Amino acid sequence: MAHFEDHHRGSVVVFCVKQGFFGMEGIMSSLTTADLTAVIYSSGKVFDGLRTGRIDTENFLRSGSLDAVTSRSDLALLEDLRDAAQFVIDNTGRVVDADYVRQVNGRMTRSAAIHPGSLRTDDQQIGVDTRHGRHTPDAVTDEDLQRIVDRADAAGNAADRALDLFVSLARAQPFEDGNKRTAIFAANAVLIPEGRLLTVPFDEDDPGVAATFNDLLARAYLFGESDAVKDLLRRYGITGLRTQ
Predict the structure, then answer these.
(1) Which H or E element spans position 13?
(2) Tens digit of pLDDT for each residue in 126-177?
(3) What DSSP line would sit under 35-94, residue for residue?
(4) Are 159 and 238 in contact (CB under 8 A)?
């Protein structure tokens, strides 16, 4: 039985591997999008300004309840994040390649790109405004996208691969929109078979946590300084996978 520390709650999460009571396959087969609430909620909050609370987000994922979803934009965002999470769950164990990444982006049909899953072009001049300046990377081809995935796959253990994949995809901005969301779900596809999740650093009581993350990610974008944001994610973003 493997133990992973949950840095958000200061407790130890117990995850049963094949030698445990339930086995990896049983846990994977019982996963639902509600088990990925922490990923969906934190990415929605930090990346897109989700206004729905955490408990209400989980209620939506469990039952479809709209009782506390007060805007169409929140509903569209939650539906897209739910569908991306479901794709990852349905494809647990599948090799993460360029086509996989495109399909993750393609699940976000309501709140992201006009052409979900399609790579952007240089003519579109799509970029990201940060406190350090505007980041407008060159458009990527399918071959470029596969090279990004391959480089991440050679990064080391599962955590290293997931972190490298997240930062590299976010920095490359391969799609018209939803790039960070795509990156976080692709990274989770690497971690979930290990019994872990990658969430976005966020604290309801301390906005400085998300601000620090955004600042370090911007430095990775513009200056290639990726170690600091990876270290932050390693310390505060990687958690044990809880199944209900």
Answers:
(1) strand 11-15
(2) 999 999 999 999 999 999 999 999 999 999 999 999 999 999 999 999 999 9
(3) GGHHHHHHHHHHHH---S-HHHHHHHHHH---TT---HHHHHHHHHHHHHHHHHHHTTTS
(4) yes
% of the chain exceeding 90 in pLDDT: 85
C-alpha separations of 172 from 81, 86, 144, 145, 169 in Å? 20, 24, 10, 9, 5
Superfamily of domain 2-240: Fido-like domain (1.10.3290.10)
**Domain boundaries along the sequence of the chain:** 2-240
Tell me phi and psi for residue 156, to 5 degrees: 140, -130
Distance CA 181, CA 59 (A): 21
| Tens-place pLDDT, residues 82-122 | 999 999 999 999 999 999 999 999 999 999 999 999 999 99
Q: How many CA atoms lie within 13 A of 241 on its CB side?
A: 27
